[in-house]
Amino acid sequence: MDMLQPDLSTTRVPRVMFTVAFDPPVVLPQNDWSRLYMYANVNPPNIELSHRGAPPTYDGLLFPIPFGVRVDPSEPRAISRRRRVRVYTEDRKPVVSQHHNTLFIYKPIYSQVVSETAFSHPRQLVDMLPLLRQYAFLSTLLENSFGSKTSDSLSPAQNKSPGEGTKPKSQITTTKDQVARFMEMEEPGKQPDTTLEEKMSMDVILWVHPLPHLQVVFPMGKATANITLKILEGGTVEVVDDNILGENAHGAANGKRRAFTKESLGRALEHMEDLCKWVEWIRTRLSD
Fold it and tell me: In 3-state terms, what secondary structure has residue 174?
């Protein structure tokens, strides 16, 4: 490359390149995969094909299809998992909720895995970070609700009764404190006395164009909650539509829901990084 000197002459200097490795690798839709390499001003590698000879899909990379199972990538896919979630009601009563989670992908999202990339200037890496955080956060949400923490059916170990626990502490007064306290109670090693158990279904629809969106549907009291959110660059959550806050014509919520806003729901999910816990947190705070 040519470097401009003080006397306006140019001197050819070697081009210095660096390599950044991602651990774990990041799964990106093909358009965003190309955009990542554009930030680094390098040509993307050849598109990798699956063993079926077609580009892999986003869900296929996150949740691989068992070998030998015939699946048409152009057809919708539903991924069903089970998970036991320990939650706490607003009056601090421990409950174990049996979640039946289903992820729906109605259109194929052709994607690629990025494990490393080259760049020549730190600014390029800074430009990549919002996009990387966006899809890393999306992957974390899906992994926690449909990945290694879940199973196809409940194992004997999952059916064991939780052990004894800790005493409740002071009353919580703010939404921020409620989220923090809710997460503290979920820390490993804390095994409260849980005597109740209930079953719940959570359906999630995923699409990524033009931005990653999740539509989350779950029971809440006698009604059905329906929340649509999008994951912005940087991993920020924006709730774009819901039917649970009960806002009036002036945009204000009624009753105990007055302390909750779309912004507070989004921040809670950013903090929890877990759709199952987030849904239970909403149900225990906003159910009639």
Answer: coil
